[in-house]
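Project standup — Tuesday

K.O.: blocked on the structure for the chain from last sprint. Re-posting the sequence here as requested.
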Amino acid sequence: MALEGPSAQDGMVCIVSLIISCLPPPLVPAPEADDSDDDHFSLTSSDLEDADADGPAQDGDGQDHFSRLPRNLLSNIMSRLPTKEAARTMVLSTRWRCVWAASPLLVDDGHFRAAEGHSVFDAVRGISLCVAAHPGSIRAVRITRTSFYEQEYALQRPVAGLAAKKIQDLILFNRPWPINMPLPDDILRCASLSRLYIGIWNFPDIPTAHRPAFPNLHELGLFHSMVEDKKFNALLAHCPELKILSFALSYNYPSCLRIKSRSLRVVLEWVCTFDKIIVDDAPCLERLLFESFSERRRPVKIVHASRLEVLGFLDFQLHALEIGGTVIRAGMTMKDGAMLPSLKILAVKVRFSHDKEVKMLHTLLRCFPCLETLHIMSIPSWSADRGDCAEAWNPMGSSNCFSHLKTFVLHGFRGLDREQLFVSYILEKGIKTLGIVCGDSDGVLVKGNAPSGGSSGSGISVCPATSCWSFQHAINLSVEDPFCVLRRDKARIASFAEAMRLCASLGC
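H.V.: unblocked you, prediction finished:
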């Protein structure tokens, strides 16, 4: 698939920047570029011929006390060095050569000198040298700055080497095109992988009779890559221990995201254009998360996910939710089969000026009788705020869908009548914590002076809320609520007078 013209190339560069920003941070930060004359380095024995076996003389007594540290400590030190600096420790002494050989290798193309004027380092060749020369295992490889265009054969060598050296953590991006470049089949031999992120590749076929390709894989990220439906279904079946699955900026490949896994706990779709999302059978799934982008509505079908606790951000203009075979429609009579009693945290995008979305929110909330935290993101609309819509909420007076609700957070608050009406309605349901992220602020709720602690005097704690909704927060199971952080530190709770007035005006 060719990219022609400067506009297409600029667009691809922008896409690459976005998906790179979603990646986990490097295990070792890339060093600052220097002006040393070591632009080309080798990892062969020729580097060691002139090295002093006892190590270079040091200040003080001239002894190399550093090399006398325990080997496991030296290995730990080496694992924190950029790739080139770790390799250069071999020239210090015979002790360091042994440490280098025994230490799991970290390879990051950000540690290599990029093309700068007359100084050019062949990153693909450097990666191959690192993989081939290191006699021990390879802990992690991160490649995000290298284009493999017209270097398919050169790529096959390091990937085959990774498979043989028990690679655990691999982030492999082709930057920036072609976007249909085939990923080497040897990727399927990397059975030791526990984390794999691939970007801008065409994923290979998995033979039907192939044994589980990734028996130890816990985390998989597919970024702007071509993985056809049939290939994806086969891939998921070959990851029996997979816990976290994420997609970012994937367009039409796969067209249908069908989840059938006994191990998955998190599924994240980030700015993708799937035709539909179907959770067929995921008994361990805890989080189903979206940051959707589409020009049309698409079904989100939840067939079996008995442990699902976190869902969102649902967007009524983009998602048609179906639970247990029942499509959720505004004003419908709720059936037991259309409820998810396991759900604890829900996030929804709502245009309060649209009557249909307000009524849909009213219906949706009845699907989750044990809901504890509700996030509403108020989306601006060209329609005017129509004021009162209390009649939509009156039928819920006897409903038990708020019986467990403890926390309500309103994102993008702009003070519209319908926003305030909904906040007032929610506050009547006995919640303990109210958080508001103002639409024109960085998360500090208001300005003014108020007693520390933010209490409104009626048992409701009003806290400034900071949105933490990001790709890495979404897939991080240690983050209790991926949508928001309620700030209770003294510095952030210093200004609530306006919030108190708001709560007072709403009768809370």
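K.O.: great, moving the ticket to review. The longest helix spans residues 6-21. The mean pLDDT is 76.
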